[in-house]
Amino acid sequence: MAKATIGGRIYEVEVRGDTVVVDGHEFPVKVREEAEYATVTAGGVAYRVQLPPEGERQSGMAVKVDYRPFTLEWEGRLGGGPAPREAKPAAAAGAAPRPGVKGGVPAQIAGRILKVHVKAGDAVKQGDVLIILEAMKMENEIKAPADGAVKEVLVAEGARVAEGETLVVIG
After folding, report:
1. What is the four-CA torsion angle of 142, 147, 153, 158, rounded to 10 degrees?
2. Can you tell me whether residue 56 is helix, strand or coil?
3. CATH of 2-79, one of 3.40.50.300, 3.30.930.10, 1.10.287.630, 3.30.700.30
4. CB burial class (10 A; 0-12, 13-18, 19+) of residue 61?
């Protein structure tokens, strides 16, 4: 359970897989990632949501919902994400290499590999989707942290991975 403040109002929020509980009310949620935003359908209503890049998401971040700006602050954990004090710095861009594996792109959460979009030798640009990782019934895009070439793909579709496990090596 977390406390989220949006537009000066405080909400009690808990994420349970594909359901979000807000102030005791459950809403089924579906998220569809687009190029620069996500379409979030909550309780049958679709919202256009823009968030900062994954590595820049922390309490106090600016978000846009249906083109309207808000500041999102929280205490505790929102879903499987980090608590504010654990947020990664902006330079991490959502995928920091695992220690000891230069160019390694780790899983940000434990889950199952649904789709591998790259193979060794492929050229990638920062932000390209490398892998789709299913966690808590949600599809998470694992994106390239920088331009480069895929040196190695260390996982296969259907594999279960731990948080922090290196999935792809880019050089």
Report:
1. 20
2. helix
3. 3.30.700.30
4. middle
- The whole-angstrom separation of Cα 142 and Cα 59 is 22
**How big is the chain by its Cα radius of gyration, in Å?**
16
Position 42 scores a pLDDT of 78
Amino acid (one-letter) located at 104: G
- Topology given in CATH for the domain delimited by 97-170: OB fold (Dihydrolipoamide Acetyltransferase, E2P) (2.40.50)
Helices (H), the chain: none
End-to-end CA, the chain: 39
Mean pLDDT for 118-137 is 92
Structure tokens at 167: 């999935």
